[in-house]
Amino acid sequence: MRRRRSLILVMFAALSVLASEAGASTLDVPLTVEEPAGAARQLEPVTFGVPLPRGLTRDVTRLRLYGPEGHAVPAAFSLVNRWLEDGSAQWVHGDFLAR
Predict the structure, then answer these.
(1) Long-range CB pairs of 25-30, under 8 A, 24+ apart, other chains included
(2) Which residues pair with 26 in a beta bridge?
(3) Alpha carbon distance 6, 10 (integer Å)
(4) How far apart are the first and last CA of the chain?
């Protein structure tokens, strides 16, 4: 039997960035983690990559991962590339432990 568990990756800039930049917004990116073998896994490491629109954020520490119940999931984000025009994050990698 295939078990499917969804996580929602919610990315947003800090309130200080939202307050200082006109048009700053949030970005919701659905992320689905699938266990095709049906094994009951606990704390399985997952790494993913997400492209970001220009100008969303410069600071990847302001990104958050939320589970299906809406609770924050501990995750680490690392910057992979920046947009040349404004230096904002263009591509990030995220790491977390899935259940």
Answers:
(1) 25/56, 27/52, 27/53, 27/56, 30/6
(2) 12
(3) 13
(4) 17
Read off the pLDDT of residues 30-83 as tens digits, 9 standing for 90 and up. 888 888 888 888 888 999 999 988 998 899 888 888 888 888 889 999 999 999
- Amino acid identity for residue 44 in this structure: E
Query: Within the chain, how many helices (H) and strands (E) appear?
Result: 1, 7
Q: Is 19 helix (H, G, I), strand (E, B) or coil?
A: helix
List the one residue out of 67, 59, 47, 80 whose CA is nearest residue 12. 59
**Statement: residue 14 has pLDDT above 80:** no
**Domain total for the chain?**
1
Distances (CA, A) of 64 to 1, 26, 37: 31, 11, 28
The SS3 of residue 89 is: strand
Residue 14 is part of which domain span?
Answer: 3-98
The Cα diameter of the chain in Å comes to: 49
